[in-house]
Amino acid sequence: MNINFPEGFLWGGAVAANQCEGAYLEDGKGLSVQDVLPKGIHGVRTEEPTEDNMKLVGIDFYHRYKEDIKLFAEMGFKVFRTSIAWSRIFPNGDENEPNEKGLKFYDDLFDECHKYGIEPLVTISHYETPLELAKRYDGWRSRKLIGYFENYVRVIFERYKDKVKYWLTFNEINSVIHAPFASGGILTPKEKLTLSDLYQAAHHELVASALAVKIGHELMPKAKIGCMILGITTYPLTPNPDDVIATMIKDRDTLFFADVHARGKYPRYMNRYFKQHDIHINMEPEDEEILKNTVDFISFSYYSSNCETVNPDLAEKTGGNLSRGYKNPYIKASEWGWPIDPKGLRFTLNKFYDRYDLPLFIVENGLGAVDELVDDGKGSKAVIDDYRIDYLRSHLLEVAEAIEDGVELMGYTSWGCIDVVSASTSELKKRYGYIYVDRNDDGSGTLNRYKKKSFDWYKEVIATNGNSLLNS
Ligand code: BG6
């Protein structure tokens, strides 16, 4: 096979502020929804932060980022994806003036990246709505959030316009339908929300996202601004035409969000869906115009695929990232029950590219696994994570296939390039990194960093622009 990653391909890794920074109240930061989700997205919200919330300390990236970026540079990263914690800049979300200390932190962080020639790729909102916006307005259910988001976005674009070229608006924007509190800062319990409520919140986020694209293009003509989609790849469980149609419909849960971002308007198929489910969305006259501000590229996360069927007796349900389907009998799963399907990544890349004809960016992909820290025989410690190398290699080989297929791909940032606290379950034992962080779920550990075997492996992949994938 041919390996032809384009010249200038943006190799790197990804994290999110709330999963790595810690320092949850330092330098004027306010609380975000993550600070009251001790057991992760799938857990229950608390009234106040509790000590068992692993994200409050994270991996202490806030204080150790220099050491970490140096390690990323050693691997040869060209790009580093992280998010700005909105509540560091606007502690309650709705102030008029930003918090200078929060702004300064990201100035220093981006400068540190540039010191090594690493481009920051910044997610504006990664499951980090300020908690006060959740309490006062029920988060993105309220149209007011668009205005507060606009203030935030103007401040960070003005401040970082010479430091950040690549931006993503909302992390996995389609997840607001599945995880309304974590993704949309919506305090009302999910079981009390109607589909109208959820799609209204999604509409507000879509308008806010398009507004960010508009403002970004005005303030930073050279910047590239993308959307970020939770890439849920669904196959029909059988060739039964009913399964095929059911899959087409399920797929639209995801595609709807990419369609609006790429085409600048609501797709016609949603009319039928809204009618069938009695969904009514309040739109302001200006929304149609704002939505016309389309993205420069489509980014997405990809971990696994699943199946859809009209006959639930045929298969068990799968585990997986936020949205789930039925088990594919041809596919094995990770320790956390997430199906592992490298070819699904090639399929997804082709599907997005065929549909939008826009550059793509894989901004999350990786294997969450339990790692064992062992003596490396040289006086230090290491993790022999061949299973992670297998996962990443098999996926990257399919990425190479997609590039051969003609897909235009800007880059690849594997998820959790350094171990971070997991989003869904708030564990640290679910590790994704090339770098091991000595911190355990009971809070113990030195927070020291150790290179895993995958560290050198990825370094070689980057150094050879993917060609070493053929050897290892
Ligand atoms: C994505 C999120 O859904 O999946 C990340 O954008 C998250 O924040 C990643 O960490 C992996 O999920 P988890 O639950 O294993 O951390």
Question: Sheet bearing the most strands, described?
Answer: 8 strands, parallel, barrel
Major sheet: arrangement of strands? 1-2-3-4-5-7-9-12
Which parts are unreliable, with pLDDT below 50 for 5 consecutive residues or more? none
* Each distinct ligand: 6-O-phosphono-beta-D-glucopyranose
- CATH top level is Alpha Beta
Q: How many separate domains? A: 1
Structure class: alpha/beta
- The amount of helix comes to 25-40%
- Summarize model confidence as the mean pLDDT: 97
CATH architecture identity: Alpha-Beta Barrel
How many strand segments?
A: 14
Strand content: 5-15%
Active site: 364 (nucleophile)
Pfam families: Glyco_hydro_1
GO biological process, one term: carbohydrate catabolic process
GO molecular function: 6-phospho-beta-glucosidase activity
